[in-house]
């Protein structure tokens, strides 16, 4: 049986290898970039390349043709700008209008655990209230916009900090005079797990859901960066001696693990360092 067509809006650090993985699974994949020089890389990966921008209105290639798919994966994080809340809402309003002219019936939104405030405890999917950052506020609002649409079903996937491959903490150690908030737990996830989780959501048709996606173990900052320095052969980085306790959150991913029967490739972010 022929597998469905998937469109990926945003083929960057996560989106391009995701597109490659879906092609290997037998899906027909369309992928977008905002830069013409990246179109060839998409084509070489077996992905139908498209030039699409949301700035904030949709422009570029024919958006109606781009969205001739069964499933849309949206992977466009909020930009760093003072008006990002309003701007991100305008981006998604334009996208939703375009979806109204498409056959797309399933949408997967790549979101972030920045939608959670630091509550100094474990947080679950129900705790996304009053995000502290502008990016978190923008994401939570567009999550709600998509979830309220009746023409298609949306699943929201809230990733922790993305790690793996060239996102190695050793790259930043030289710029760190000390490890700030050394006892603060981290919420991280390897790119390979991100790709497998998205693939499983599509395969199992887990639509209309909100999932956290973080590795089950949450190393302290001093453990994570300390191990990275050790592996890189660098001197141990001093720990901040500040007596202030940094606010934190520990993101619980049990809902996703249960729904997908998922086993993390990298349950411990420290181990993946090597």
TrEMBL record:
One of its GO terms (molecular function) is aldehyde dehydrogenase (NAD+) activity. One of its GO terms (cellular component) is cytoplasm. CDD domains: SDR_a4 (cd05266). InterPro entries: Epimerase_deHydtase (IPR001509), NAD(P)-bd_dom_sf (IPR036291), NAD(P)-dependent_oxidoreduct (IPR051783). Residues 7-187 form the NAD-dependent epimerase/dehydratase domain. It comes from the Bacteria. PANTHER family: NAD(P)-BINDING DOMAIN-CONTAINING PROTEIN-RELATED, PROTEIN YEEZ. This is NAD-dependent epimerase/dehydratase.
């Amino acid at each position: 049986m022929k597998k469905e067509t998937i469109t990926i809006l945003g083929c960057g650090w996560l989106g391009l290898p995701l597109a490659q993985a879906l092609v290997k699974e037998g899906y027909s994949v369309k992928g977008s970039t905002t830069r013409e020089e990246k179109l060839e890389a998409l084509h070489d990966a077996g992905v139908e390349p498209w030039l699409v921008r949301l700035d904030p209105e949709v422009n570029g290639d024919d958006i109606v043709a781009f969205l001739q798919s069964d499933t849309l994966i949206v992977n466009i994080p909020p930009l760093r700008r003072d008006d990002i809340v309003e701007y991100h809402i305008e981006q998604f309003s334009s996208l939703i209008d375009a979806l109204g002219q498409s056959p797309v019936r399933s949408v997967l939104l790549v979101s972030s655990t920045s939608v959670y405030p630091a509550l100094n405890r474990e947080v679950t999917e129900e705790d996304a209230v009053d995000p502290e950052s502008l990016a978190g506020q923008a994401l939570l609002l567009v999550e709600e916009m998509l979830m309220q649409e009746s023409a298609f079903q949306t699943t929201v996937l809230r990733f922790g900090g993305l790690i793996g491959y060239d996102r190695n903490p050793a790259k930043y150690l030289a710029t760190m005079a000390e490890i700030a908030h050394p006892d603060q737990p981290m919420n991280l996830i390897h790119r390979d797990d991100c790709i497998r989780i998205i693939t499983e959501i599509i395969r199992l048709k887990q639509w209309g859901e909100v999932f956290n996606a973080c590795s089950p173990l949450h190393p302290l900052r001093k453990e994570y960066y300390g191990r990275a320095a050790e592996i890189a052969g660098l001197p141990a980085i001093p720990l901040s001696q500040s007596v202030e306790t940094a606010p934190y959150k520990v993101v619980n991913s049990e809902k996703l693990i249960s729904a997908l029967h998922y086993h993390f490739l990298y349950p411990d972010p420290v181990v993946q360092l090597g």
